[in-house]
Amino acid sequence: QVQLVESGGGLVQAGGSLRLSCAASGRTFSRDAMGWFRQAPGKEREFVASINRSGGSTLYADSVKGRFTLSRDDAKNTVYLQMNSLKPEDTAVYYCAAGTISTVVASRYDSWGQGTQVTVSS
């Protein structure tokens, strides 16, 4: 498994932006596809975005498409989730995950971070 540490969460007003980071260690980062999921209180964990090993392909949930951008920097073993035009419904704990393929299926990822809270006020 790989160790993942998220950062960058916080409180922001609706319409604002945040950039989440996920730093990986313990495994060759370039071999991992990376994903972001989120879980709001009382709701199930849901897919947000994922990126393949090369960084050439990304997937986004319809709810964030056009507002969120996922990228990776293999030199820094880090992925970044740029979140713009944030809405109150984006409020959740955001989790970074690593796996062999870029997919919306949470069970396909074998390593998870501890999560970072994002709160969007109206």
Number of strands: 11
The largest sheet, given as strand count, sense and whether it forms a barrel, is: 7 strands, mixed
Q: Structural class, from helix and strand content?
A: mainly beta
Beta content:
over 45%
How many whole angstroms does the radius of gyration measure? 13 Å
In one word, what is the shape?
A: globular
Order of helices and strands: EEEEEEEEEEE
CA distance, first residue to last residue: 38 Å
- Helix count, per DSSP? 0
Q: Fraction of residues in helices?
A: under 10%
As residue ranges, the low-confidence spans are none
Overall pLDDT, averaged? 96
Q: Which key phrases capture this entry?
A:
about 120 residues; mainly beta; seven-stranded mixed sheet
Question: What does the model show?
Answer:
- The chain is mainly β.
- The chain is 0% helix and 52% strand.
- It has strands spanning 3-7, 10-13, 18-25, 33-39, 46-51, 58-60, 68-73, 78-83, 92-99, 109-112, 116-121.
- A hairpin with a 4-residue loop joins strand 7 and strand 8.
- The chain starts with a strand and ends with a strand.
- The model has no long low-confidence stretch (mean pLDDT 96).
Give a concise summary.
The protein is an all-beta fold and 122 residues long. Helices cover 0% and strands 52% of the residues.
Topology at a glance:
Elements: E1 3-7, E2 10-13, E3 18-25, E4 33-39, E5 46-51, E6 58-60, E7 68-73, E8 78-83, E9 92-99, E10 109-112, E11 116-121
Parallel strand pairs: 2-11
Antiparallel strand pairs: 1-3, 3-8, 4-5, 4-9, 5-6, 7-8, 9-10, 9-11
